[in-house]
Every structure is written in C-alpha cells, then in structure tokens.
Amino acid sequence: MTPTTPRGSVDSAVTATVEHRSGAGNRRDPDSVKHDREARRVILSSYLGSTIEFYDFLLYASASALVFPHIFFTNLDPIAGTIASYGTFAAGYIARPLGGMIFGHFGDRVGRKKMLMISMFIMGIASTLIGLVPPASAIGPMGAVILVILRFSQGIAVGGEWGGAALMALEHSRSGRRGFAAAFTNAGAPSGAALGTFVLGTFAAVLPPEEFLAWGWRIPFLLSFVLLILGLVVRRAVSESPVFQAAVAKAETGEQSRPKIPLFEVLRRPRALVLTMLGAASGFALQVLLSTFSVSFAAEQGAERSHVLYAFAVASVLQIPAVVFFGHLSDRFGRRPVILLGLVVFVLYLFPFFNLLGTQNIWLILVAFTLALGIHAAVYGPLAAFISEQFGTSARYTGASLGYQFATLIGAGFTPTILASLYGSTGGTSLTPVIGFLAGMAIISAVAIYLTGESRDVNLHTHSH
Questions:
Q1: What is the DSSP string of 282-343?
Q2: How far apart are CA 204 and CA 226, in angstroms?
Q3: CA distance 215 to 211
Q4: Exposed (0-12), middle (13-18) or buried (19+): which is 464, by Cβ within 10 Å?
Q5: How far apart are CA 144 and CA 89, in angstroms?
Q6: Do residues 371 and 286 lie in contact, with contact meaning Cβ atoms separated by under 8 Å?
Q7: Which of 119, 127, 197, 257 is the most exposed place for a label (fewest CB within 10 A)?
Q8: Whole-prediction pTM value?
C-alpha cells in the first residue's frame, strides 16, 4: 500500500520522491531515477563507512583475545590476563552510549552527514594510535591505561557512526525497502570483522609467534589510517538525508517544531528506548561470543590459532549477504518475526556449536562459525530498521543511537569477561553456565521484541516519537 503524502506539506515533493512508486507501468520520471541513484550511493557509503569503523572496532576484539594479554598484562596468569584484556575491551562499549548521545544530539540538530565525517575521523585516529602504544615491558601499566583511553575514544566514535549510517540509508530509501537498505549498515559489521580478522590472521600466520607479538599485531591497526582517508572521501560525496531536510524545512515555516535537546524528547517517552535496547541486547551478546570467547575456546581446544581466525573471517564474509537477505525478509514479513526466529534457533544451536569448535578440525570449525553467523544474521539483519523506526525524525538519530548503543553495552560490553569468568569458574570443564547465561539474555530480548510494535509500515515523515 502506497503511503499518502500530506497535502500542503513543504516536504511533499521529497516524500513523493522517497516513498511513492509510480503506477505508470515501467515508465519512471527523471526525479525518481535520480533519487534511486542517490539512494544506492548512500547505501554504498553507509556500508563502506560501517565496514571501516567496525574493522577498527572489532579488530580490537580479536587482539584483546589473542594479543593484549601477552603484551599489556604480562604480570598476570593467562586466565586473569585474558579477563583483564576483556576489561579494556568493555571500555569501548561503555563509551558507545555517550557517543550516541553526543553525535545523536548534533545529528538531529545540524544533520546526519557532518556527524558521520567526524565520527569516522575520531575512530581512524584512535585505531592508528593503538598500533603505537608501547608494551608493558617498556612503560609498565601505563600501556594499559593508554589502551583504555584509546578504546574509549573508539567507543565514542562508533557510538555516533552507527546511528548516522543507518539513518542515512533508511531515510534515503523507499517505503517497503527500508529493512533491505538499512541492513547494509549492519552488513558492515561482519565485513569489518572479516577484514580485521583476515589481516590480523595473516600476520599471525606468516610471522613467528615472538615477532607477531613484538610488532606484527601493530600493522593492522596502523592500516586504519589508510582506511580513514578512503572513508572520508566516500562519505564526502553523498547528500544529506531528505527526511531530515524536510523536517528542517517544516520547522522553518512553523509547520512543525524541533526540540532543542532531542535527548529530552526521547526520555519523555522512554518505552521505545527501553524496549529497543533490551530487544537488541541478546543479538550483541551472541555477536561478541563469536568474535572473542569462541575464538579463544577453539584455540584452547587445540586448533591452530591462525586457522581459527581464518575460519571466522571466511564465515564473516559469508554472513554479509545473509544480513542483507534477512533485512529484505523483514520488509516482507515484518521485523519482529524474523528477529524472534533468529533468537530461538541460535539458542538451540549453542551446544552443537561448541561441540564443533572442540573437534580441532578446521573444516568443522568453519562450519560451526558459518552456521552461527548465518543464524545470527536473522537477528542482526532487520535490527537497523527495527530500532530506527521506533523514533520520530526530530529525535531519531538520538533515540536510535542510544537504543542501539545501550543494547551493545548491556549485551556485549561485559559479555566476554562474564563468559570467561563463568567458564573459568568450572575450571574450563563445562560450558553449561556460558550457555545458560546466553539463553537467559535471549529470553529477555525476545520478550522485549514481542512487546514492541511492528514498525515495518510506519511513515518516516509523519511518525513522531
């Protein structure tokens, strides 16, 4: 059903272009063709930008599992060192809601595009500097302190990145294709994970272990500066969100008010924020399970560390089209049914997943990661549209960013530490506490998603928080 454009609205032309499909057979007017071309360019920009940012952010996840315990926490036993390293990993997730709040405020006030440029710059510089932090043998505990500061900066940056990238793709797209378009932003996460894991795994494979730990792990972080330049060039070429421009135009004519502090608009009716952050939390817990604990677990069971990294990288590449596919599926069947199905299937898969990881057979480990990431795509693919559509335009950047980033904090920020501690409490002999924790989180998310209204058909121009 084609959405109706409000009469007399200053954004009628934009709405007609963004959400109206012509019924005149296959003929399409030039403005429609031009819009679709720009929408594709924005989607590509969101995907590439998200890939670069998550390369930086998730590269740290792999390094925190495989490198940092041996570089910055050498005074601790192996298990304690891993837990301490995961603690620095959590600093990025603690910072993400703050980044969402800051960038969300200005993104709702001055525009999406400018904030995306700034967030990418901060991320690129922080990641590059991580590659230059001296080890504990040179500066003692100050290395870990600097690492936490830079990780916190990464969190601020990615806290602003996701909301802007998702909204740019969502708000440039036609009704009925928003799940598909916004899914490309989330597809940047497995793309970035694959790229970061592949690069780190390559250096781990070609260098002797002592050289890799001495300097080889730093190269992937230093490459972030090259990716930063590429990302800024791509981002500079796209146009501002037409939905945001329409809202600004309506505010200038007095047709619609815009809150001076979008955060207050979100907190005034907190139900959407609470339900989205709880609903998405389990998806991030499962995501970080795969990128941290599972990699370490497979290596501890006797599999070659570099081979495990490669298996995860290949599976992440295979997840990319799955994320987009499930985003498209949510356009047809709704966001909630697809996400709920993904959560149920993933929990059922946890025991077989760990059994496959423990085989030491790299091909079975690849199958384990491929199936896990494919199932996870059902949760992650529709998530960008699901969260963003819960909020009105005047506070959408702030609301979506906070919902998403609080979900990452709850679901992923401390999960590696919790999982390592639960597993360690059994002496490394039982995974039951780990699986029980993940299943409990999935139940909480499922209830929150069930209580959230279906958002597939909302009109972004008229929807208010």
A1: HHHHHHHIIIIIHHHHHHHTT--HHHHHHHHHHHHHHHHHHHHHHHHHHHHH-HHHHHHHHH
A2: 21
A3: 6
A4: exposed
A5: 11
A6: no
A7: 257
A8: 0.79
**Residue among 19, 438, 85 nearest 242 (CA):** 19
Cα-to-chain-centroid distance, residue 271: 22
What is the C-alpha separation between 20 and 463, in angstroms, rounded?
Answer: 16
171 burial via Cβ count (<10 Å: 0-12, 13-18, 19+): buried
**Ramachandran region of residue 57, left (φ > 0), alpha (ψ -120 to 50) or beta?**
alpha
pLDDT digits (tens, 9 = 90+) for 381-392: 999 999 989 888
How many residues can be counted in the chain? 465
**Per-residue pLDDT tens digits for 316-351:** 899 999 999 999 999 999 999 999 999 999 999 999
Q: Residue 462 — φ and ψ, nearest 5°?
A: -105, -15
Count of C-beta atoms within a 10 Å radius of residue 264: 11
Q: Are 43 and 172 in contact (CB under 8 A)?
A: yes
d(CA 75, CA 52) in angstroms, rounded, equals: 33
For 126, the token pair is: 């922080």
Q: Identity (one letter) of the amino acid at 227?
A: L
Q: Do residues 119 and 155 touch, judged by C-beta distance below 8 A?
A: no
Q: What are phi and psi of 24, to 5 degrees?
A: -85, 60
Q: How far apart are CA 177 and CA 328, in angstroms?
A: 7
Please give the Cα distance from 373 to 216 (Å, whole number). Answer: 28
- Please give the structure tokens belonging to residue 385: 């549209």
- pLDDT at residue 112, rounded to an integer: 83
- Could you count the other beta carbons within 10 Å of the beta carbon of residue 364? 16
The tokens for 147 are 């690492």
How many whole angstroms separate alpha carbon 458 and alpha carbon 435? 36
